[in-house]
Design goal:
Chain lengths: 440, 428
């Protein structure tokens, strides 16, 4: 979305949504309360961005505004890193189908509609990075995708949201699930014992596949045919593809840890309604967690004991804990509410704010790029009109890689923030009229 | 005889003592009391005696009698009212055996009573109560053309008889795709839904007229012939139509005695509900009403109140156009508005109306107005304001205690009192 850069003064100007919001020169945001997350809050701070990166952050009297930089007065505002949701289903996801419970070769990004209105709503909530996942109706439902919400201009295809690794490949994990959601009539498992068996069987096959490949070396004759499903499991066992495991009941949580131990995959525990019951075991296993705090318990047997207190219990046990929306189970626009409920039930404020940002970055292996306001990291940040944990606070602006992707003062963006007629519709690719010249 | 008399006296003293213990005498001191009946009282005291508010005012004016249990709080509000829930019928386990809010065998069943389906021990009753919700309008859910009746209960009590405030409050109906059936079953379209409702109301009219005529005839012949022969008695009795529980309820709807609460979201479905009211003169309550902001003038002109959808209801399909700001638009237009927790099919199994009001307060409603949608205005809409909704002398001793702004995410509910009984004192 890097269109020819236009000079656009920011202070006091309502920007037209048609104009790209990128800058040739550095921009300094001066005078806000800044929450860097990897350090103490800064009462009156300056954040300087240049291109797609953060170049400086600190108290106003300690940070020099570079020559030629645009200065934005943000007195009275709060600035913190863009929020990271480690478990999202935005975009019309369709991962594995009904043909079987284990489909690791399926990639969720092949199903995503980049024009889905959910992405704009997520930006309105201050989110800048998502782990978009297939569902939990399978033991292994497919590969997830880590997505940057590069919506300063409307993206054309899902590739525009990819976060690429050094080899130029899209980053993402592998979605797994146990408990009730992944159990039903054959060929799906009917019991927990069968669920674990089917998973073990496939990982063992993947081990043998990897061994065959290694043995074949350069010999094309000996090389086994490429198996997309087994390739993904091999990546998981090599630690290259993190397993994001949906699990609720305390014994199901322990089963996940048992399987991770056996096959050596790196795992993140997701939801863990019963997590507060086995916090010490989770801490001993050294695995991070991504949790959801719901308005009430129930809805299914394994979520009967879900409780706000999980956040604080995990923190005190020493578990790295992030929050997630599970959009559409909860709305990305009110992601802050999750952290606030964690604090309500005993989590510390710093851990709660970290749970929306840096912990999520670490879980996605992207903490070198995102999750805190640190020089060298991506310029992903949000401007708020108050304390992030207050119900009254609004996200005013969301910036992704140095470009503003959401502006509440823009009526079109505001529609996605508060809802209304048309808020449910997919975005329009061209912001103007049919038949007229495209804006990009 | 004397022994029996003493036993009787002893028994009545004992039951009075038991009753008195259940309704302990309680007083609450708070830095801020939102009575919802005038200015908030700062540094105030509420005294609850025998389940009713006996005294209310500033700490210098109101004495707390000896022997009363005293609670303290930062903020006190009237016990919160959820204007439309399914808690108690739609259980937390979400298995067939604990889901009594919808019976799918046929589209119109106004005769199904909420009192026959309410589980006082449902864990979600305790859950919402722990956040200060003391009165709920609960019962049959949206999802069938007429799913059944609703009622008003307090979120306490061992049996539904203990809990009930109003055993029949409304008849619950749904217009729109949610009430559609597939295949050969009816209704399969919006027009069919309206046709079926109109047909039922017309049937009710004829049932009522037949019944009234038969009654009148029986009265007249009784006046004329003080000694009626057996034959003549049988004749007048047979003129009365056999009792039809479904039509009996619909007669009350026709006569405006029972509201028809219609769950609708699209503007066209709201318009359909208004058309029904116009034709039959029924009392209509609009429920959910996501697109009501498109029909503000029409709703206002019809004098219809709106139980607005939960602020955080999910926006997709019929609710895709909902807005956080609708409540404030309706209130600004002078339409009576109350807030609800609604019906959830999965997780979270119930919403909490306190949280819904909080987000409404952050989106156009003032603090006081948002609180009104779950207290004073909800009570008025449900016509239970003689008992609850505001803190006033003689009203029920239903109180919600908080350690800060009730709407802030990090504030806790620290105590709940229902009919003078402290039902919760844990920090939630």
């Amino acid at each position: 979305m890097r269109t020819p850069l236009l000079f656009l003064p920011l202070v006091g100007l309502l920007l037209l949504s048609l104009s790209p919001i990128t800058h040739a020169e550095p921009v300094a945001f001066v005078g806000a309360k800044i929450l860097p997350i990897d350090g103490e809050p800064i009462e009156k701070g300056t954040l300087v961005i240049d291109g797609e990166k953060i170049v400086a952050v600190g108290p106003v009297d300690e940070v020099d505004v570079p020559a030629g930089a645009k200065t934005v007065d943000v007195a009275g505002r709060w600035i913190m890193p863009g929020l990271i949701c480690t478990h999202s289903h935005i975009g019309g996801i369709g991962g594995a189908d009904g043909s079987g419970p284990i489909q690791p070769g399926v990639r969720v990004f092949d199903s995503l509609n980049v024009l889905d209105s959910g992405f704009k709503r997520a930006l309105a909530g201050g989110l800048t990075t998502l782990n978009i996942m297939p569902g939990s109706g399978h033991l292994i439902s497919g590969q997830t995708v880590y997505a940057k919400l590069r919506f300063d201009t409307t993206p054309h295809r899902i590739e525009d949201l990819f976060i690429l690794d050094e080899d130029g490949n899209p980053t993402g994990g592998l979605k797994m699930a146990n408990g009730t959601n992944s159990m039903r009539d054959a060929p799906f498992p009917g019991t927990r014992g069968k669920s674990a068996y089917l998973v073990r069987e496939q990982y063992i096959k993947a081990r043998e596949y990897a061994a065959k490949k290694a043995k074949a070396g350069d010999d094309a004759e000996k090389m086994p045919p490429v198996d997309l499903d087994l390739e993904a499991l091999v990546e998981a066992m090599q630690g290259k593809r993190v397993v994001h495991h949906h699990t609720h009941r305390h014994d199901d949580i322990i089963t996940v840890l048992r399987l991770a131990q056996e096959f050596g995959f790196r795992v993140v525990l997701h939801h863990i309604s019963d997590g507060w019951k086995v916090a010490d075991e989770i801490a001993a296993a050294g695995v991070p967690c991504s949790i959801i705090l719901l308005d009430s318990p129930g809805g299914k047997l394994e979520a009967m004991d879900v409780n706000f207190k999980t956040a604080g219990v995990l923190e005190r046990a020493g578990v790295n804990t992030a929050f997630h929306t599970d959009d559409w189970i909860t709305d990305s626009r009110i992601f802050f509410r999750m952290a606030a409920f964690g604090v309500r039930a005993g989590m510390s404020r710093p851990a709660a704010l970290r749970g929306l940002t840096l912990s999520g970055a670490e879980i996605l292996d992207l903490d070198d790029r995102i999750g805190s306001l640190t020089p060298g990291k991506d310029a992903d940040f949000i401007i708020l009109d108050g304390d992030p944990l207050s119900v009254y606070t609004k996200v005013l602006e969301t910036w992704v890689e140095g470009s503003r992707a959401f502006d509440r003062s823009d009526p079109e963006d505001r529609l996605y923030a508060v809802g209304g007629f048309g808020a449910g519709h997919d975005q329009q690719p061209y912001l103007c009229c049919f038949g007229q010249e495209a804006q990009q | 005889m004397i022994a029996a008399k003493h036993t009787l006296i002893a028994a009545s003293i004992l039951s009075a003592l038991i009753a008195a213990r259940a309704q302990a005498q309680v007083a609450v001191k708070a830095k801020m009391i939102h009575t919802m009946a005038g200015e908030p009282i700062q540094n105030g005291v509420i005294v609850v005696r025998n389940g009713k508010i006996a005294a209310l005012g500033s700490a210098d004016e109101v004495n707390i009698p000896d022997g009363f249990q005293v609670l303290e709080a930062e903020v006190v509000t009237p016990g919160l009212i959820d204007a439309h829930s399914v808690v108690g019928l739609a259980g937390a386990y979400n298995y067939d055996h604990d889901q009594d809010q919808l019976e799918h065998s046929t589209a119109m069943q106004p005769q199904l009573r909420a009192i026959d389906a309410y589980n006082t021990r449902e864990v979600l009753v305790d859950w919402i109560r722990s956040f200060g919700v003391t009165t709920i309008h609960t019962g049959h859910a949206p999802g069938e053309l007429i799913s059944g009746q609703t009622m008003i209960v307090k979120t306490s009590g061992n049996t539904v008889e203990d809990a009930v405030v109003m055993p029949v409050r409304a008849v619950a109906a749904t217009l729109g795709p949610e009430a559609e059936k597939t295949g050969a079953k009816s209704p399969g379209t919006r027009a069919k839904m309206m046709g079926m409702l109109r047909g039922l109301l017309i049937d009710a009219r004829e049932y009522r007229d037949k019944r009234d005529a038969a009654k009148k005839k029986a009265e007249e012949s009784a006046e004329e012939n003080s000694e009626e022969s057996d034959e003549e008695e049988k004749k007048s009795a047979s003129a009365e139509p056999p009792r039809d529980l479904s039509l009996e309820v619909m007669v009350d709807v026709l006569d405006g005695k029972l509201p028809l609460m219609v769950t609708v979201n699209r503007a066209q479905d709201i318009a359909n509900a208004l058309r029904l009211k116009e034709e039959f003169g029924i009392t209509l309550w609009l429920d959910s009403a996501a697109e009501s902001y498109l029909l503000v003038d029409e709703i206002k002109a019809a004098g219809v109140p709106v139980i607005i959808h939960p602020t955080m209801a999910r926006a997709f399909d019929e609710t895709e156009n909902l807005s956080y700001e609708t409540a404030s638009k309706l209130v600004a237009a002078g339409i009576p508005v109350a807030l609800q927790s609604g019906f959830e099919a999965y997780v979270p199994k119930t919403r909490v109306v306190l949280f819904e009001a909080a987000l409404a307060a952050a989106n156009g409603l003032s603090f006081e107005q948002a609180l009104a949608t779950i207290t004073r205005d909800a009570a008025k809409l449900l016509a239970i304001d003689d008992r609850v909704g505001t803190l006033d002398i003689g009203k029920d001793g239903d109180l919600a205690l908080f350690d800060g702004d009730p709407f802030e995410y990090t504030t806790h509910c620290t105590g709940v009192v229902i009919d003078g009984e402290v039902v919760s004192d844990k920090k939630q």
